[in-house]
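Recall the central idea of this unit: under ordinary conditions, the amino acid sequence of a chain determines the structure it adopts. In this exercise we apply that idea directly, starting from the sequence alone.
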Amino acid sequence: MSSRRGVGLSAFQNRSALSTQYASHGASLRSNHASSLENQLSVFQSLLHNFAIQHGDTIKSDPTFRAEFARMCNAIGVDPLAGSNVKGKSGSKGKGSWWAQTLGGDVNDFYFELAVRVVELCRATRGENGGLIGVEECKEMVGKGKGIGGGMDISDDDVLRAVKSLDPLDSGFSVVTVGSRQMIRSVPKELNTDQSTVLEAIQVLGYVTCSMLEDNLGWSNARSETVIQDLLADSLIWVDAQSPEKEYWSPSSMGLDDL
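Accordingly, the structure predicted from this sequence is:
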């Protein structure tokens, strides 16, 4: 006769109680961890606020310092252009953006003034570039004072944030990547794959011809002509008809002095 005893009901009860204890302990650890992270984030935000006040003049005047400070804000969940201090949490209504609350209206107004200049520049050059202008080109033209008011000392990051500030207005302005370049698109039309390929080729080669597209991409003549004509119709490329074969250039890929 076997001397082994079967597992009794008490063993199942003990196992159930142990599982409950583990679950409770795990929930307690998660709660404590979340509370600790929240406290750390609050400390970081307080230090960031003090840093912003202490170096406010530099933030307002130095575009590189301003860009690095904005990246530091984003890293801990502070969106400088948002109406609240912390993403996902409701802030005080009627106080404007975090820039305005921390540094006064100067920096906040700076981005909205820059956004106005970007909009004006895009509209003024739309007939030349079809509503697609490089971020670097936009920065240089605004920096030289080509637009309303005088010149502004700005960085690429400033331009990108200015365009982002237009999102709530549903303005149709957005930043797209064509090849290796960031471009501001001021028209709602999407570029298809063929159009993006041609614009990227122009960035690399300087210009394209239909025969170049056919030889290098294996396109048919009809496909090459169709995409070229679509880009011409939208003023995204220009044509040089003086060459033996028509050459197609992108105004956004030319030097600023050529425009």
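The first helix runs from residue 9 to 54.
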